[in-house]
Amino acid sequence: MSAPATPPMDAATERRIGESIERRRRTLDARERLGTVLLSGVFLAAATALAVFAEPARASSVPTALAFVAAYAVAARIEFSTGAGFTVPTQLVFVPMLVLLPTPLVPLLVAAALLVSSLWDVVREGTALSRSVNSLVDAAYSLAPAVVIVALGAQIPTWGELPVYGLALAGQFAGDAAFFAARLRLCFGMPVRDSLGELQVGHRVDALLSPIGLLAAMAAADAPLAALLVLALVPLLRGFEQEREGRIQHSLELGRAYRGTALLLRDLLEEDDEYTGHHTEDVVALSVSVAEEMGVDEDTLRATEMGALLHDIGKIAVPDEIINKPGPLDDDEWAIMKTHTVEGERMLQQVGGLLSSVGVVVRASHERWDGGGYPDGLVGEQIPVAARIVSACDAFNAMTTDRSYRKALPLEVAVGELRKHAGTQFAPDVVSALVAVVTREVPDWQLGLAEPAPSRVEAKPQAVQQA
């Protein structure tokens, strides 16, 4: 039986994973360095205060503590990518550490273990040495559960303290979320909502592994090192990690391959028709700007960019004498021209994967908001958002560039036509964003747009001509 195909990764996750891989290989920039130093200082101050002023309920030998540090470092070597960061199965070792070692010392021991693991990354994987200081921020999640257990007197593992351990886990999630949000804001200027899903994945993994760690702690109450038998799960988890990372890398490579294929098709189109090739480049840049102005999600932004890049690819199948005709097309010629959206979708469906979904945008790139477009007569929100954006940007670029049958229209006339046809040919919100983009540096009084400019388009009287 063949392996299932790897589905395309969503654009936001693909971007964050790519950025994370790149970031780990470069030194901290000024903003990251400042944020990391501040958060590390907060953690070290709190962890040191806990270790100095809290009374441990049990003693532990140095070899035992070092064994747990080494075990934690081994577990931390297993990293499951979640986007901007990763989650590690260290809960298997962390939970026993909380109740089998002197609890007030555990946050500092966790920091030591993560530092050892990060230095291994520097030696074996080329991670920037300056990033090792991130270990102190990564260890901050351990503060809250240690404080809860110390404060509620549950440092000795007994089943009667199970509610306290539940509170400690909740405290861990709350403290981790607080440091995670502060790190995103201080180091990267990102709101936590952009990576909330990744945080939830990490907490879900911790919640599932915590009972195993607690069972190991209870069974090893009188022989703490016996809890490290949980390391027998490490090879299994390592296999899962390698399988997952392989799928992620495959998905990233597919994304690059699809983009490369799209660029190749664009180049073929430019060789076939130089005007259409240059027109496509302009439409791509404008479409991306409009999509960003509208604040669309990253999947829609990617679909818009790729759809704009390939919206005319089907014109390869249209005869050159129609493409380059120095005048308006007759009805038969328009019928042939209109086949290019369907032909474009067919070509992209043959490539498959991500480009199959882009084919839907290409097919719908000449639909009208009022249902009068082609090839399917879609109405309003039936038209994909990306296709609505490409349609308006395609028309605007066509109006403002020289064509074989007319000269380019002035900017104020083209903007007037967009506004005139908003709600009929074009989606109103797209027109608003497009007008904002193209007039951002030009005052309204200069454009003469106090009132919509009169139409001077000489092509079809009922719509902006858009081939």
Describe the 3D structure:
The chain is mainly alpha-helical and 467 residues long. The chain has two domains: 239 residues, no CATH class; 175 residues, Hypothetical protein af1432 (Orthogonal Bundle), CATH 1.10.3210. It contains 20 helices and two strands. The chain has a two-stranded antiparallel ribbon with strand order 1-2. A hairpin with a 4-residue loop joins strand 1 and strand 2. Helix 4 crosses helix 9. The longest helix is centred in the middle third of the chain and has 39 residues. It starts with 10 loop residues before the first helix and ends in a 20-residue tail after the last helix.
Number of separate strands: 2
Query: Helix count?
Result: 20
Silhouette: elongated
- The main sheet orders its strands as 1-2
Radius of gyration: 30 Å
Which whole number gives the mean pLDDT?
81
SSE order, as H and E?
A: HHHEEHHHHHHHHHHHHHHHHH
Q: In this structure, how is the largest beta sheet organized?
A: 2 strands, antiparallel
- Terminal CA distance reads 46 Å
Structural class by SSE content: mainly alpha
Strand composition percent: under 5%
Q: Any low-confidence stretches, pLDDT <50, length ≥5?
A: 1-6, 449-462
Helix content: 55-70%
Whole-number total of structural domains: 2
Task: Give a brief outline of the structure.
The protein is mainly alpha-helical and 467 residues long. The protein has helices spanning 11-24, 30-53, 62-76, 91-100, 106-125, 134-138, 143-151, 162-188, 196-219, 234-272, 274-294, 298-310, 320-323, 331-337, 339-351, 354-363, 385-399, 411-420, 428-438, 444-447; strands at 80-81, 86-87. 63% of the residues lie in helices and 1% in strands.
